[in-house]
Design a protein that fits this description.
This protein is an all-alpha fold. The chain has a domain at 8-75. It is 74% helix and 0% strand. The chain has helices spanning 3-11, 13-21, 25-69, 74-77, 93-98. α1 (3-11) crosses α2. The chain is flat.
Length: 99
């Protein structure tokens, strides 16, 4: 079953019913069990991701506080970026003058 088929089934109740008619009751129960496990895993992953974001924000706030306590600013920590040369000279600039 392709990803597009699953998306169609998830978006449209009638498509889901038509797909379910092709399965036996045993298969439907197994499918419900598998989908339940997948939903659980996705919820766990989302909670973990949110916790990581909260921890990252907390660490960032602590670091900013330490920087302020030390009397520094973020600009003091980041060196000036070197200016990049824009573009490059054309190939064979001397040869193009001859033509």
């Amino acid at each position: 079953m392709s990803n597009q088929t699953l998306e169609r089934i998830a978006r449209n109740k009638n498509v889901a019913r038509a797909a379910a008619r092709q399965l036996s009751m045993e298969q439907l129960h197994k499918l419900a069990e598998v989908i339940g496990e997948v939903i659980e895993q996705k919820n766990d992953e989302e909670k973990r991701r949110q916790e990581e974001e909260v921890q990252k924000a907390r660490k960032l706030a602590e670091i900013r506080e330490q920087i302020n306590e030390a009397g520094l600013s973020i600009d003091d920590l980041v060196p000036d970026q070197p200016k990049r040369k824009r573009g490059r000279p054309p190939k064979n600039a001397k040869d193009s003058d001859k033509s």
